[in-house]
Specification:
Blueprint lengths: L5 E4 L5 E4 L8 H11 L9 H15 L7 H12 L16 E6 L5 H8 L2 E6 L4 H11 L10 H4 L8 E4 L22 H12 L3 E7 L9 H13 L2 E2 L4 E4 L7 E2 L1 E9 L36 H16 L15 E2 L13 E2 L21 E2 L3 H7 L12 H10 L3 H16 L2
Parallel strand pairs: 3-4, 3-5, 5-6, 9-11
Antiparallel strand pairs: 1-2, 6-10, 7-10, 8-10, 12-13
Length: 421
Amino acid sequence: MLKERIDIETIDGQLFEIKIIEPEDSKPASFTHYLHNHKNGVSQFYKKDALSFVKQILKKEYPNEQITQEFAEEALQYLIFDFNKSIPFPAPEKPKFKFIDLFAGIGGFRLAFQNLKGKCVFTSEWDKYSKQTYKANFGEIPFGDITKPETKNYIPDNFDVLCAGFPCQAFSIAGRRGGFEDTRGTLFFDVAEIIKNKKPKAIFLENVKGLRNHDKGKTLATILNVLREDLNYYVPEPQILNAKDFGVPQNRERIFIVGFRKDLGITDFQYPKPTDKNAVLDDILEQEEVSVKYYLSTTYLQTLKNHRARHESKGNGFGYEIIPNDGTANAVVCGGMGRERNLVYDDRLTNFKPITNITGKVNREGIRKMTPREWARLQGFPDDFKIVVSDAQAYKQFGNSVAVPAIQATAEKIIEKLNCK
């Protein structure tokens, strides 16, 4: 069983603590989604399970009391009071549109769209550690596996934008036209199914640059065919955007796919142009001395040097890389691996005593890994974004996330089109 907590301060100042969360239990997610949506009509999709969850908790708190429906509803209303005040990144007070966040990770899409006055009305993410980070920053527990019909049943109607940074999978399309049915068994099929059933005004999909040439271009061709022909969306040619063109010093190229429901009459769309702000690595580095645990050991550093030398002798370019302070970082990698491609020089270390088990001594050349906070900044996350997991999980989460500034620049173009119709 996955143990987590939801701590909410009640109207009388008491701490309402919930410790009963199981990975496949949708009630905690329904509870937090209800708290976020009690004013906008979306709460009807979550109220039944939210009440059931509150009853479950009250029975544990007051085992000798009869917990009536009225008592549970009253308790639920108390919990709503001032709920947003305890959330680091609350929804806007007067939202202009609604969106859903699929394959949400730690909320990069959500940050971008909330910054544009959007209200998130449904979230799903299967990774339990990403859920912890998402809850800590947005006060909401994402629903789980979006491939399950019971999870899809919680998605409300009448939202404006569907956001999804879905994983890429190959489709079996040999001898067929590459339509909706041909995507079965892939995660894109689940996205397409939701679009088909809910018909949002706009869609915004993000994926790795390699999607363009994946399976000799057949995968992207199938996706576009489904969106344009089967689902009846206007989808301009997808575009590859680089995070470094939008104010963060990271060379990260990703393919963006935007679409609009054809009945809206939108027949043109321009992706955002690069901004004038050219950031460099020094803009995101820690201002104070960082822990010795981020500095490479002499043994590991020598291993990296030997590894690069072997590849160079064969004419290969692979190896560790130290990014200059006036340079641009390589893409932070999905899964959090490849930190040796983004090493930095930092000679401020004063305590060379290791605090982790390393082979050899701490190197005296000032070579260290970037910290998770620096990776967060490379992705455009603000410094008050909470990191509540281990370093290993944090690297993985930021590596798998989206570059918020590039997402927000594109989202702004989408909202402009929706507002003019």
